[in-house]
Every structure is written in structure tokens, then in C-alpha cells.
Amino acid sequence: MARPRTFDEQTVLDAAVRQFRAGGYAGTSLDDISAATGLGRGSLYASFGDKHTVFIKALTEYVRQALVDTRAMLDGPDDSAIDRLHTWIVSGAGFVLDDDEHFGCMAGKFAVEVAETDQEAKALILGVFSQQQQILLDCVTAAQRHGDLAADANGCALACMILALNRGMDVMAKGGVARAALDAAAEQAFRGLPLTAAYRDRPARA
Amino acid sequence: MARPRTFDEQTVLDAAVRQFRAGGYAGTSLDDISAATGLGRGSLYASFGDKHTVFIKALTEYVRQALVDTRAMLDGPDDSAIDRLHTWIVSGAGFVLDDDEHFGCMAGKFAVEVAETDQEAKALILGVFSQQQQILLDCVTAAQRHGDLAADANGCALACMILALNRGMDVMAKGGVARAALDAAAEQAFRGLPLTAAYRDRPARA
DNA sequence: ACGGTTCTGTACTGAGTCGTCAAGAACTCG
DNA sequence: CGAGTTCTTGACGACTCAGTACAGAACCGT
């Protein structure tokens, strides 16, 4: 029938995500993406549309992957829910600093750069924030069921607070605040959760 | 001697701050600043240097003003230190949403956009974060002296945590998370501070 | 009033960017 | 092998932007 494509759509999308995460929206040209993927500009336009469309597709792909990752970290049995929360909170700084390329949350980045003027992007960003809050809420509720968090605590507020803290650690890590200070802050935040006496008295784990 | 300037340097700097805060570094052209100030580009270059220099000067001016504002909110007598901390924490969302132009923290914005590649900006941003942490620490220490916060709490970690939360609320507000949710999260965070029994039992204020 | 100095506005250059287009390449079906 | 279809490439035009240059305007001391 016709000439087949020589590129993998997912590969191009991943490259676009990397470029936008690294350079921002205004700071990334289609030539950058073209160079990163080896694809000519014509092919890019034919397959993905204009710059904004490429951006929205890349952001959508990031959101999809981010939610998969978030669930992988937070979903699980009730008895270890509080530990998963602890890990999530404490890994806040690492989300930026451990990454080879010092990325960080793309949703946070574009919430700051373009949400004000790009309603389509803003909707995607709000979506991922909301769903991450929901995943956190599920984990908080699990910890409450297991008796590690106070049953009368406001789970929604806790989830929102934890996510905000995570986003803030991201920003501060990018601003150069020392890893040790952020880790200590994260531990402090965890101790500020409404932990039950049962949690504090539980036997230490391996 | 010579022709005097028709513009006020501070006015131009303020306009530059506004433009960069609104549009980001890559998204703001010198024409934008020129238009916003009514000043020709030639005068801009003669007085402020190239784009990056203008940006650094604008960021420096923002940092100066931000520290003045932070001190105005947090400095004060020991007996109301805990209230000032409460106000600061709870005003996190308002920092974006109450502002007429929905700005938010310029340091946070550029930590995300340019800190990775612009060491000069990164140093300024780290400076404002560090000093804000110090101001918060002073306020925390004051609250400890007055017996509202546990004396054995790690003030540095608390200060860093509170600042991270503030930055994160900023990001989430820009991402469209509802004001009510952020306010509830802020209240939750405040309750997570190591408040003393003396604070909880104190008589309600006007 | 006048000369010297500084400021202002605008036009220009060179580079980069977006989006399009047309010509050629690769593949499949008949 | 040929026709038709789809993909790829590179170039092109219009535009924007950063930074410079130059001519003229405004001012002050003498």
C-alpha cells in the first residue's frame, strides 16, 4: 500500500517529553525535538500537528506514566500503607536529585510555566494532581484502617498536604537547597501526621 | 551637563519583574519590557545591559522585596509567634490566588525554569530560600521560647518543611487545585506542628 | 546663545523559529 | 514490473528576537 513509518510513535513522544521537561515550553523549539528524534520537521507536523499539539500529547503521556508510577509506589496492603506513605514523603527530594537529568515533576513545572495561559495544559495538570491526591487518599485511608493513622483525621486534607509538600520539595531541590535539609524536612513532615500510639509502639521492622 | 533621564530606574525594574514573573525568562522578550515601560530598547540596553543582566537585576529586586515582605509577616514578639506562623502557613494559597495577576513566588518559578542552567539565578534563588528559612526559624524559635512549640523540636527541619509546603501550595494553586482544598491542607499542616499542651489549652483570642 | 554631554527612538543585522510545500523515496498490491 | 499511496527530507517565506548603530532631542554650565 504505502511506505511504512521508520519511527516509533512512543519513542518520539518520550523524546518530546524529555525535551519539554528539560527546556520548558517556550524554551523548546521543534528543531530541538526534531534533532532529538532524528525526525524531520515535516514528519513531525504530519504525525503530531503543531508545537502546541505536540506539547499536549507529551504532557498527556507524562501524566499517564506519572499515575502509573504513583500507583506503583502507593497501592498495596493496609498493613504497610503507612510505610508506603513514609517512603513517598521522604523520596520527595530524590525525585529531582536522584534523576540522572535532574528533571522533577513535569506537571509542577508546567503548572508554573503555562497553566495560567494554556487551559488545555491546565486541565491535564489539575487532572494529575487530583488523581495523585486520590491515590494518596486511598493510602491514607488504608493506614487509618490498619490503625496507624488516627481514624478521625481528615484524609483529603492530609493527601493534599502531602502532595503540596512533595511539589514544594521539588521546587526547593531545583533551587539548590541541600538534600540533607530536605530529607530532614520530609521526616519532620511525616512525624507531623496524626500517627496513632499503636504505630509508635509497634515493633521495629527489618 | 547632559540630558536627564525621563524614567525612574525603580519603575523600570518593577515592570521588568512583572514581565518576567508573568512570562518566564524564555517567554519574555525585551520588546515586552520595552513596551511595558515605554522605554526604547536602546535606553534599556544602555542602562541595564543585555537580557540576562536585566533578568538578574529584576530577580535581585524581587528577592530584596520578598525578604522585606517575609520579615514583615514573621518578625515580632514571642507571644504571637505561633500566630504569625499560622498566618504564614495558611496564606500559602492566597499568595497566588489573592494576587490580582495570579503571580506567585518568582523564586519558585525560576527555580523550576532556569536554575538548572543559570547559576547566577540559582544562587539568588538559593539565597532567598535560605534567608526565608532563617526568618521562619527565628519565628519557630520564638514560638518555642514562648512555649507554644515543643522545645525539643528540630527548628531547622520545621522551617524547611514550612517553606517547602508554601512553595508546593503555590504550584498546586497555579495548577488549578481548589482554594478550599489548599486551605484545609494548610490547616492540617499547622496541626502537624509539634504544638505544646500549653498552646492547645490557651484561652481563645479575639 | 552655544557647545558638549547624555538620553531617546528607530532602523538594521543576523540568528532562530514556526509552519508549509514540493519533490523524491520506500513500500504494497495488482 | 508499474501504479498508487504514504512517508521523508530539505528548503522556503514570514515572522520574532537580541543586540548594535546612528541620528536627533533635551539639558546644563558658561
TrEMBL record, chains A, B:
Keywords: DNA-binding, Transcription, Transcription regulation. Residues 29-48 bind DNA. It comes from the Bacteria. SUPFAM superfamilies: Homeodomain-like, Tetracyclin repressor-like, C-terminal domain. Coiled coil: none annotated. Residues 6-66 form the HTH tetR-type domain. InterPro entries: Homeodomain-like_sf (IPR009057), HTH_TetR (IPR001647), Tet_transcr_reg_TetR-rel_C_sf (IPR036271), TetR_C (IPR011075). This is TetR family transcriptional regulator. It comes from Actinoplanes palleronii.
